[in-house]
Amino acid sequence: MADHEHHDAESEELEPWPWDDEGIDEDLVSLADAPSRDSILRPILMILVLVLGGYIISDWQEELAFFFSPSEPINIGTVQDYPSQAEQDASWSPDIPHNRVIQVSGIPSKRSIANRYKYFKLVGGEVYIEERRDDYGDSAIKRELADKPTVSVDRTYFIGEVGRAVSFASMPGRYAGLRRYYEVNYGTKFCVDMEPSERERLKLKQRETIRTALRQSYELTSEEERVKNALTPEPTEEQITAFASSRPVCVDSWLIQIGVMPSDYWWYVALTTLFAIFMLIDAVFLVRWVIAFVKPDDGI
Length: 300
Description:
Helix content is 46%, strand content 15%. The chain has 300 residues and is α/β, with parallel strands linked by helices. Helix 3 (41-59) runs antiparallel to helix 11. The model is unreliable at 150-155 (pLDDT under 50).
């Protein structure tokens, strides 16, 4: 009986297993090798990586440019002398280079303080200072027990300090909180926070106000005062411009980051290089995926 069963088993025609090499359908093999058209998520993620990396690097353009800028400071003079220079030349404006190392002197005023930095404005011009707090890193209790600064600190002269100059107009998205603080507490209107149309409207309104005030001043003063102050029945455009220049509707301002030098921004360059390498590898894989997707028979 056993021999008979054995004989029958040997006489049966054996069929290959589905996963034997000889039994695999070649069409299925080519289909498996071809890129799946359902895996569209992969190139989307690759593109998102490129977009995100490009956005980060573009957002660091100012820092990267500062790293490669000269370390020799440009002396912008003493800020409290700016008004006298403007009186001598109505077209004069402080020559403060954006994103460069500068040297500045002045008298601090209008102080404010944050967790890491302290800020103040220099008398005579629209120059603001950012300086690291001496007690940065101390506990809240230690700060509370420390001696509080007195009012006389505002009279301390700020001599020849060196740091990075940043124009608010060139970096509108940054330091918005600082500008808002000085606008709310000191009434300073920054041009970077106003639309051009709004600035022009306020300038025209201001000129009309000045024109009316000068007319009234002429009518209410004596002949001697009119001659002394060069008043005329109808104000000249030069007179109106002079008054408007002394009280602008908004100001262009600079922030000086004290102690900040180009070499401090080395890590921006290091991270940018790392991101660029990663983006390059990502781009290569994206191109290969696209080629394989368009020509699946050619493979990757």
